[in-house]
Design goal:
CATH architecture: 3-Layer(aba) Sandwich
Largest sheet: 8 strands, mixed
CATH class: Alpha Beta
Order of helices and strands: HHEEEEEHEHEHEHHEHEH
Strand content: 15-25%
Distance between the termini: 75 Å
Shape: globular
Number of domains: 1
Number of helices: 9
Structural class: alpha/beta
């Protein structure tokens, strides 16, 4: 019996060890192919580049705002590349809102390997590029999708935006990991934590949180918990039946546009 227990314990420790060693392979799923703007309906956007604080030259896609309207800086989730979010960008560009689709290190043919501090550096470099064009925090809407919500919250925490939109966000990666792997000590193992719950209460800009009731990847309880920790003015929009990747099919774009025009009332005139 004692030998059986030792075997089970050894297997458990082995699985935990593998999870620790290969955890970033379970967190980041980059498509490393360089996307074509034409192939995803983003021909109207231009490709731009900027250099991070650790010396990586990254590309992004940019569409300028109409005069007097804000620029939405989009940080996408952990899978694919920015080309898969072009359909979201179009909804805002059509209304005169600028969009900078940020591409991370290791994604879309960019150099480097993704990790938490690296993605924060990528975000700072993108916002620094906008600053050189004369677009400061007051004219920026920080938008984070899933994993990107952790980047957007960090940028807001650093006071780099005037409004914050979080699509299917989480409180922290260890919280979500513990939910999915409840039988492992995930909270002790995760290195890239994206602990938005520790930062959101120190952010004082209008905040919108979008979440679906049928989200199995990041269950809605995490979005609701983050909302409770956020400061006013804040809005939680729940989409009945919405899953992790289909909120735009439930009207999320209209909700975000309404939020932006409310947060930037001087820009709200119809085109």
């Amino acid at each position: 019996m004692f030998g059986y227990v030792l075997v089970v314990l050894a297997i458990y420790v082995g699985i935990a060890g593998l999870l620790y060693v290969f955890q970033r392979n379970l967190q980041y799923f980059p498509d490393t192919e360089r996307p074509s703007r034409q192939s995803v309906g983003a021909a109207a956007m231009e490709e731009v580049d900027f250099t991070t604080e650790d010396g990586l030259r990254l590309f992004a896609w940019y569409g300028a705002a109409e005069e007097g309207r804000p620029t939405l800086v989009f940080f996408h989730g952990n899978a694919g590349h920015l080309g898969g979010r072009a359909y979201k960008a179009r909804r805002f560009l059509e209304r005169g809102i600028g969009v900078l689709l940020v591409e991370y290190r290791g994604y879309g043919g960019n150099p480097g390997t993704p990790d938490e501090q690296g993605l924060y550096a990528d975000g700072r470099a993108a916002l620094g590029w906008l600053a050189k064009k004369g677009i400061g925090p007051e004219g920026i809407v920080l938008y984070g999708e899933s994993l990107g919500s952790g980047v957007a919250v960090q940028m807001a925490y650093e006071k780099r935006g005037g409004a914050l939109v979080l699509e299917t966000p989480f409180t922290s990666l260890p919280d979500v990991g513990q939910h999915h792997y409840f039988w492992l000590p995930v909270r002790w193992l995760v290195r890239d934590r994206f602990a938005s719950k520790k930062k959101i209460g120190q952010i004082a800009i209008p905040t919108l949180i979008l979440h679906g009731t049928a989200d199995k990847t990041v269950p809605i309880k995490f979005g609701k918990a983050l909302y409770e920790l956020a400061n006013h003015p804040k809005t939680l929009k729940v989409f009945d039946g919405g899953e992790h990747n289909d909120l735009y099919q439930h009207g999320a774009a209209e909700t975000v546009l309404e939020f932006i025009f409310k947060s930037y009332p001087a820009t709200a005139a119809e085109k």
